[in-house]
Amino acid sequence: MKNIRVTATEAFKRYKPVKPDAHKGTQGHALLIGGSYGKMGAISLTTKAALKSGCGLVTAFIPKCGYGIVQIGVPEAMIFTDTHKNYISRIHYDIVPQAIGIGPGIGKEKETQKALQRFLKTNTTPLVIDADSLNILSLNPSWCALLQPQTILTPHPKELERLVGPWYSEAEKVQKAVDFSKQYNSIIVVKGAPTHIIDGDAVYQNTTGNAALATAGSGDVLTGIITGLLAQSYEHIDAAILGVYLHGLTADIALPETGTESFIASDIINYLGKAFLTLQSKL
């Protein structure tokens, strides 16, 4: 097992500045799939985070009940809606995204589970899986074999436990995530303090972030950032590492102004520009 600390130097090596002649068509198109009745905030955060990551175009696929919420909350995004009002029952779209993020707020309805299975069987686009989409995989473990190579999974500890089983030490937790990553040729972002990004035998330990990130919606924002970077043609592992680094850095930058208790997930998005500026200052 190879352990690598994700410092500012390590993050900067992976950063790709936006070209002077860039336009929205060259900055990638991300598709975010999620939301259900009562959980539209999650996919709204994910969608906005993808836009703030530098992605040129972002589309959200959501149930009908969330149309007004996301369209008003994130006016820069485009919206597709499911035929069902309260949850996703069939994933369909007529765009060609460069990356897809799926799971925030999606719920675990039986029809949603079947929709995810059908989607995984046919999808060939770079993919980030989070939240209840991970829990659906845990309920249907054979579906993990449907994952495209280098799919990025972003579980918090409980979601990881449902996927790989319980552990009795930090070392065992990491080893179980390594084994899963190798079995399914996937990248596992093990969220925590610190967050680890696992790509086979390579274990990257993030060095940014603090307790302010222990707030609802923080993981939804991370999914949006990583998906947005992936859509901009970052390599899968680079999108995961850089996304986690920037996500944590926002909390480090904000802490003197917000304190720990008053920092919320929307603040991650609001401070993302300053986080990018720290990388750009090294050019």
Task: Name its key features.
single chain; 283 residues; alpha/beta; 11 helices; 10 strands; 44% helix
How would you characterize this protein structure?
Helix 1 crosses helix 9 (236-258) and helix 9 (236-258) packs across helix 11. A hairpin with a 5-residue loop joins strand 8 (187-190) and strand 9 (196-199). The protein has helices spanning 8-14, 40-52, 67-73, 110-122, 131-139, 157-164, 170-184, 218-231, 236-258, 265-270, 272-280, and strands at residues 2-6, 29-33, 57-62, 78-81, 99-102, 127-129, 152-153, 187-190, 196-199, 202-206. It is 44% helix and 15% strand. The model has no long low-confidence stretch (mean pLDDT 97). The chain has 283 residues and is α/β, with parallel strands linked by helices. The chain is built from 11 helices and 10 strands. The protein has a 10-stranded mixed β-sheet, sandwiched between helices. The protein is globular, with a radius of gyration of 17 Å.
Q: Helix and strand layout, with pairings?
A:
Blueprint lengths: L1 E5 L1 H7 L14 E5 L6 H13 L4 E6 L4 H7 L4 E4 L17 E4 L7 H13 L4 E3 L1 H9 L12 E2 L3 H8 L5 H15 L2 E4 L5 E4 L2 E5 L11 H14 L4 H23 L6 H6 L1 H9 L3
Parallel strand pairs: 1-10, 2-3, 2-5, 3-4, 5-6, 6-7, 7-8
Antiparallel strand pairs: 8-9, 9-10
Task: Identify low-pLDDT runs.
Answer: none
Number of strands: 10
By DSSP (H or I, 4+ residues per run), the number of helices equals: 11
Helix-strand pattern: EHEHEHEEHEHEHHEEEHHHH
Instruction: Tell me the strand order in the biggest sheet.
Output: 1-10-9-8-7-6-5-2-3-4
How much of the sequence lies in strands comes to 5-15%
Q: Give the biggest sheet.
A: 10 strands, mixed
Helix proportion of residues, in percent? Answer: 40-55%
* Broad structural category: alpha/beta
Q: Could you tell me the mean pLDDT?
A: 97
